[in-house]
Amino acid sequence: MIHLSAPTLARISTAELAPRAREQFGGDVRRAGTFAQLCLLGAQACLDGMPRRSSLGILWGSTYGAREAARAAIREVADGELVMPFTMIGTLPHLAATLLAQQGAPVMRAAFVHLQPAGWPWLLSLARAWLAGCEQVLLGWVEESAAAGEPHRSDWCVVQREPAAVSCQALGNPRGALPATNADWLAQMGAWLAAPRAPLALRGGSEAWRFAAGR
Amino acid sequence: MASFVRATAVASAAAPGTMPDLPLPPPGGDWMARADAIAGRVAAALKAKAELGDAEWRRLPCLVGSSSHFIGAREAQADAALEPPIEFADRLARQFGVSGPVMVVNTACTSGLTALGLARDMIDAGACPHALVLGVELANRLSTAGFGALGLLSATKARPCDLERDGLVLGEAFGATLVSTSGPWRIAALASQIDASGFAAPAPNEAIIARAMRAALSAAGWPASSVDLIKLQAGGSPAGDLAEARAVRGIFSAPPRLVSFKGAIGHTLGASGPAELSLLLAALARGQVPPTEGFAQSDPELGLEPRAADGGAVRRVLFNLAGFGGHIASLALARE
């Protein structure tokens, strides 16, 4: 059995992102591109709601990663230009963990991943394994806006051994569990947690996990 | 449960005959067709060593460490939509003939080793008995242009630990490792650290590199004096090699055998974990610690001399990687 915080679901418009980051971190986040800022805002908001521990893992993913910066960098290369250093840095999604460490988080382990569309149960399985060496593991799924008017998404929760808002365990049999994707499993859990009646069972691929209101 | 390196294979751009690798086809032509061909070649070599039944092989999960994935294929179509990187990994998994779950791991230069750590987590937890770990960085202009713009590249060649070293040289590689519940090399520990001060500099803080190495030794239960060989990160970067040397000298009163592969195959970024691991274990299986290509003249400030040596007696290895963004890893391997 592992325990999860209530998920933090950030929806941030393109125009809001930089001002929100400045407001949260007291100035421009040095060298951070769009994707890293988005990760950092969501992750920090999630951590702020939990008691601070001495060791943290960060395990997060995205369908596309730093898409905006990757497109810009490819265009610069195609135009025969040098790739601007900040463009290059912006293409690197894993730098969000470094930025989080710069904010004082005791990051012991970090991995940024891309998964098959319903691969999110891997995140919970790995987080459970990481709890052998980390007191808390931040799990996240982050997507830059894909279309005008659509907000960026940065969804996070904290996994730990100590009781928290949600208790969680793997189910041997996924039958009856609701299908969930990488992009919506945290949102589904958040919606259920707003009025939890029966435990929630979610399925991704051939695996399923059961969530029950904790504490 | 313990995890082991059961088999490895790699294709790299080392000079023919100098490394126990497979040759890469020359760059050019259709990028994706070339990637498929390389994957097929490495898959055949790994499968021949893996000693797994067909059904077990097909069930393998596949973890792909890469920082550039298929960017090289998109450079010719700058305005085309970007596909999710997982699609490239799915394609590689198909080339290997495996149909388990697929994941891409991106922690820049440590990507492949981070993927190996996740595979180990799964095996240790009993989630699967074997996992395929790939490290893949293939030709693209973005990595070269980006590292060049950051002033990290040598204009000539990579000279790990050498007095005249003046920067990195990037390379291509496709490395594959089968992690398993049995094999000739036990994964005794894998420790990681993040150097929060390291953003564009390749891990300049020796204290944090030393912390990763000490954590690996501690988790393995090894005294430093029992380590027979260190596979250095050493890529020829003036500051990076110096920081690693200081970390090594702070832990080892007399450094053991040393080797770096970045003079031979270049810095292969996210592929460097599986790629260098494959080169190392193949050389040790032949009783050799290979020479460090590019090292000729000692730097007294470093005090490290990576040289060819007898590898037959090597039982315990520390395997260091450090990368962009301050991600640092140290792997402890024990010969069974």
Describe the structure.
Chain A is built from 7 helices and 10 strands. In chain A, strands 1, 2, 3, 4, 5, 6, 7, 8, 9 and 10 form a 10-stranded mixed sheet that branches. Chain A is 34% helix and 28% strand. Chain A is globular and about 55 Å long. Chain A is of the alpha/beta class. Chain A has a single domain (9-159), classed as 3-Layer(aba) Sandwich (Peroxisomal Thiolase, Chain A, domain 1), CATH 3.40.47.10. In chain B, the strands form 2 sheets. In chain B, strands 1, 2, 3, 4, 5, 6, 7, 8, 9, 12 and 13 form an 11-stranded mixed sheet that branches. A two-stranded antiparallel sheet of chain B has the order 10-11. Chain B has helices at 31-50, 54-58, 71-74, 85-96, 111-124, 141-149, 206-220, 238-251, 262-265, 272-285; strands at residues 4-12, 22-23, 62-65, 102-105, 130-137, 173-180, 185-194, 229-231, 257-259, 288-289, 309-310, 316-323, 327-335. The mean pLDDT of chain B is 95. Helices cover 33% and strands 21% of the residues of chain B. Chain B has 2 domains: 4-180, Peroxisomal Thiolase, Chain A, domain 1, CATH 3.40.47; 185-335, Thiolase/Chalcone synthase (Peroxisomal Thiolase, Chain A, domain 1), CATH 3.40.47. Chain B contains 10 helices and 13 strands. In chain B, helix 1 crosses helix 4 (85-96) and helix 7 (206-220) crosses helix 8. Chain B has 336 residues and is an alpha/beta fold. The longest helix of chain B has 20 residues, at 31-50. The chains are: A alpha/beta (215), B alpha/beta (336). Strand 4 (107-115) of chain A pairs antiparallel with strand 4 of chain B.
